[in-house]
Structures are given as C-alpha cells and as structure tokens.
Hints:
Blueprint: E1 6-12, E2 25-30, H1 36-43, E3 62-67, E4 71-75, H2 86-102, E5 106-114, H3 121-132, E6 137-142, H4 152-163, E7 170-173, H5 182-193
Parallel strand pairs: 2-4, 2-5, 5-6, 6-7
Antiparallel strand pairs: 1-3, 3-4
Amino acid sequence: MKVTSSEIVISAVKPAQYPAENLPEIALAGRSNVGKSSFINKMLARKSLARTSSKPGKTQTLNFYIINEVLHFVDVPGYGYAKVSKKEREIWGKMIETYMTTREQLRAVVLLIDVRHPPTKDDVLMYGFLKHYDIPAIIVATKVDKIPKSKWQKHVKVIKDTLNMEKTDSFVLFSSETGQGKDEAWKIIKEYTA
C-alpha cells in the first residue's frame, strides 16, 4: 500500500473517545520494547510519527492513527513492563480488553514478537486471548536484521511452537531497519481491511 497520508487522530482511554468514523481498524500489540513504534513508522514511511523511546512502557493510551483516510492503526500499550505499578497494568489491561472485545471496526491484531527471544508468558496469553475471542492474529517477528539469516527458520519455529500458533494465522519476518517484511505485512493487512 502506498501511504500518502497518516496522522495520529486521538489518544483514547475509553470507548466514548474512539474515533466516530466507521473505518476498519488494525490493532498493534506486543510487549514493551518489541519495536511497535518503529513498526508503525516503517509501515507508514514516517520518521517519527509514533514516538520511539528507549524507555519502554511509553504508550499508555490507545493511539489511533488514520492512514490514507481509509484505515486506522491502533497502537495499544505494551505489556510485560516491570516498572509500571500492578494497578496501572490492570487499568491498561482493562482498557485493551474493552477495546478488543467491543470494537466492531477491529479487523485483526498485529502481534509483534522480538524474533531473538522465545515469546514471553504475556505473548502467549495475548495470543490465547485473541484466539478465545476469535480475533484474527497476524504474527510479526521484529528485529530480524539482528540475527543471521541462517538462523531465521530456527527462531520462527520457536515462536510458532511456543505460541502453539494456528496454521491459518499469518506470520511475517520484519525489520524496521531494512524494510524486510513491509510489503508482505501490508498485503495481509489489506486482505483484512478491504
């Protein structure tokens, strides 16, 4: 997809604040520091639309980005970050759950996982949550430029096995550095949002 326009429209914490337009939405989930902001910036061909931070846990709201006036990306708070109080994590969890289980515009969730490490307990929980609610999952393995190509398949197998990934779900190897996987990710997203 050629992105000609993209901007953040709102940072929401409750349904009353979600955008009113009836556009398809793709949510982006993953643990803090997995490279969600870098994924968004690469996909939208923008340097710093989504703020990247060396401090994980920066996204604390549901950030809605409008793309070409036809689609929303929804960046949800990263999970598994220790420096956030348990109470705060519970609030985020509720906010994400409310959005994902009630939003009719939601077409699929991109679940980002760092290819270098096996999925965490939180990744497995999130994948299980998506399966439970019958929400299509697109697994994107980030930071693929950080490991040698000869090891890709081994890492892919670990991710698929740990998640107990269903064969019907899409899997993309992605690098925000090299752009690897960008076209493939757009192709899959378009299938869900057409």
